[in-house]
Amino acid sequence: MAKELKDLANREDSYSQWYNDLVVKAGLAEYSAVRGCMVIKPYGYALWENMRDALDGMFKATGHENAYFPLFIPKSFFSREASHVEGFAKECAVVTHYRLMNDPEGNGVVVDPDARLEEELIVRPTSETIIWNTYKGWIQSYRDLPILVNQWANVVRWEMRTRLFLRTAEFLWQEGHTAHETRQEAVEETARMIGVYRDFAEKWMGVPVVVGHKTANERFAGAEDTMTIEALMQDGKALQSGTSHFLGQNFARAFDVQFTNRENALDYVWATSWGVSTRLIGALIMAHSDNNGLVLPPKLAPLHVVLIPIYKGDEEYASAVARLRELADELRARGLKVKIDDRDNVRSGFKFAEYELKGVPVRLALGPRDMAAGTIELARRDTLTKEVVPQEGLAERVASLMDEIQAAIFERALAYRDDHITRVETWDEFVRTLDEKGGFISAHWDGTTETELAIKEATKATIRCIPLDAEDEEGRCVLTGNPSKRRVLFARSY
Amino acid sequence: MAKELKDLANREDSYSQWYNDLVVKAGLAEYSAVRGCMVIKPYGYALWENMRDALDGMFKATGHENAYFPLFIPKSFFSREASHVEGFAKECAVVTHYRLMNDPEGNGVVVDPDARLEEELIVRPTSETIIWNTYKGWIQSYRDLPILVNQWANVVRWEMRTRLFLRTAEFLWQEGHTAHETRQEAVEETARMIGVYRDFAEKWMGVPVVVGHKTANERFAGAEDTMTIEALMQDGKALQSGTSHFLGQNFARAFDVQFTNRENALDYVWATSWGVSTRLIGALIMAHSDNNGLVLPPKLAPLHVVLIPIYKGDEEYASAVARLRELADELRARGLKVKIDDRDNVRSGFKFAEYELKGVPVRLALGPRDMAAGTIELARRDTLTKEVVPQEGLAERVASLMDEIQAAIFERALAYRDDHITRVETWDEFVRTLDEKGGFISAHWDGTTETELAIKEATKATIRCIPLDAEDEEGRCVLTGNPSKRRVLFARSY
């Protein structure tokens, strides 16, 4: 069984097979009977709950409230904002009927042809349209602004090639939709929320990210500006992990949302939207995990510590478990989530492998020698190191170890990421770096969509972002040699 | 404006108009552009979050974990469990296509006829089928049992006559789905969870409920037994507020979920399911509120205390607000959710009306005389009483007042409910009580579905439940005169 548990594909052989094995075997998620839709299993959902709760707290601390808008959007709404329809209204689940009936021929149920909707309903792929249609009724005056609303919801995009957490037909996310008096305020909100995402990625997930602007070509459909956080996975591919959009007055115009401003004149409302999804779970897995399984940051781990008795015979078992219960209570008193695995039908080697697979940050094993010596074996998941430590002061040691692990995971990912931002000057270097090393390539680009698409066509690399901290630097476009004023980050991506 | 705020229909004139006005004007919810779907506004959603968090804590305390299953269910799944299809697969949203395209004639977007699904997908009206299809992969042996899983999700039932929170096409809910080794264990789980719902309704919502079993006719489609909590609204109608179903082995048989039991034999798994929804918000509103607006129990109120300055001129304003900030900090230190309404463009009478409408349990108003005397005016929303109290010790007084209000709201609803359980012996009494007094009618029934339906046909009253605490009592059916062994509770209901 321990063999079977560890039977992941090797990360170095097939990263994508390793990833899929890991998601399934660690009990995070699996595919369902419905094409492209996943089941998020309890362990995966517990991780999502922790992520959601942390983000929700950050949203509320920045003045946002939650609300809930309909799952369905009338088809015609998508045609209102010209560029939005191009980007979003295509690969969608379409509801055409509202009733089933017994098959007259006795084969179960069939769609009732008489119950056809006058206008088809689209299962929301994102909610700008229905929300701005609603905001129209909420906003008359500048006194009604700002509206700072977030929604936690499921959305559906009919993806043809799916991958658990990273790209599924249905996924869970949050989408913030804010309405403002002025352009300036909306621009600031856009930046504030990408900052919240950066903090969450780095401080909670332990995943370093580059913050920047998308190019016009990579912008959200309907946005004037899209800001992004881009993370680097261990296979050298980038993962867009969260976006925040400055929508200008586009949706206000499309849904006729005007307000009386402080000068008593009518004006269109300024908008932002911003979202992260269960895709973040994919980022978390791919940034930290190894061939033994998940490596989870303590601030998000569903379980912090597992305690395992090592014993021969009933007597040793009973005394080890009794002592572990006392230690578990001390750990819980420090706010740690703790489990004693006292199953007596499973070998301890199997248990060790199982909790490594599940990425539990700390494992404590207590055997007869430890009982005599007042010690316990402490194993760290992130480094796979073990040491024998005194039981005395254990809770304090483990609690501070959590901070240490949280920091170490981030530092390791940061070192990897920083090692994988390569400055290149020539097209040869660009292609070779991409193929041999991967990661982000910092290069000059002439600023045209044409060049951007030519590079994508040639290499599958896209401009992940124009980093916020990009310095002014005269240079020559890596493909065309045309002049450029700053470097952008390219990468192949998920 | 205060006039407009209070412009609710009178509760005594038109209960349903009053209810709708209240939901909309208190900012809880409104209808959307999509027929039968509601928008839950921030104040309503904050209430739902408090309810969800309390329930979620109770589920976890009883050993349950959360997970997430697909929104869509293949149509054929509904035909698997014979009685389930009758009850659930009819008024559903049906997804038939997965792509839109630009209208060749240039009129926005149309459904792409080439993107027709081979098998239609149903937007989940409840998830027994997809979940039991999934459990099949999770369960081999008794060691895999029990599975104690809950899901928080949106569901869709295509209701023709909708009412905010009470009956909408889409609503939010939780659905627990558990799998057990033995009948006994599943029966106990069914009872445990209806007990959790009763505790939540009574201790958190302040709504007394009758716990009982549904008759065969009123059972959930596919259940062997349905337990229910039934609450009484102020118009004398009952509201089914939560149900817990013992599903026997029906879904395990339908989806072929067998396990190796302790005797090493194959057996079908035993199941329960249980759910409550945003309908509970409707119950909460209708159980407590009055012509001034909402009355919310402190344990669920999004806001506990509002503080309002009473002043003439800038100086009085500044000193009142400054003092209110100090008092607000003291209240927050007691864990109370507090807001100072320091708007200077709105009369205090308007503010009073607004927070009455929103059901904030306690209002504090501080004027110049109070400033001088070290007092403050404290108003209770539930009783609409006011008193002047010392600022000294205010936080402690308000904190303990929250418990008092919580208890008082429940006691008042309980007194009303107990006054409205009428024991009747004859059909005349039955009809007269129903029409003149309403509420629950405790009467003998001969146990046949035929009689149950005849009574419903004649009076619109249904059997809400066979109460758990119904005593053995020989009697005669109120309609047929046939023998009966215990009383059941009838009522008209939502």
Write up this protein.
Chain A has three domains: 2-288, Bira Bifunctional Protein, Domain 2 (BirA Bifunctional Protein, domain 2), CATH 3.30.930; 305-408, 3-Layer(aba) Sandwich (Rossmann fold), CATH 3.40.50; 421-491, C-terminal domain of ProRS (Translation Initiation Factor IF3), CATH 3.30.110. Chain A contains 14 helices and 27 strands. Chain A has an eleven-stranded mixed sheet with strand order 3-9-10-16-13-12-11-24-27-23-22, with helices on both faces. In chain A, strands 18-17-19-20-21 form a five-stranded mixed sheet, with helices on both faces. In chain A, α9 (313-333) links the parallel β17 and β18 (338-340). In chain A, α3 crosses α6 and α9 (313-333) packs across α12 (394-419). Chain A is globular. At the A-B interface, β2, α3, β3, β4 and β5 of A face β2, α3, β3, β4 and β5 of B. β5 of chain A pairs antiparallel with β5 (94-97) of chain B, so a sheet runs across the interface.
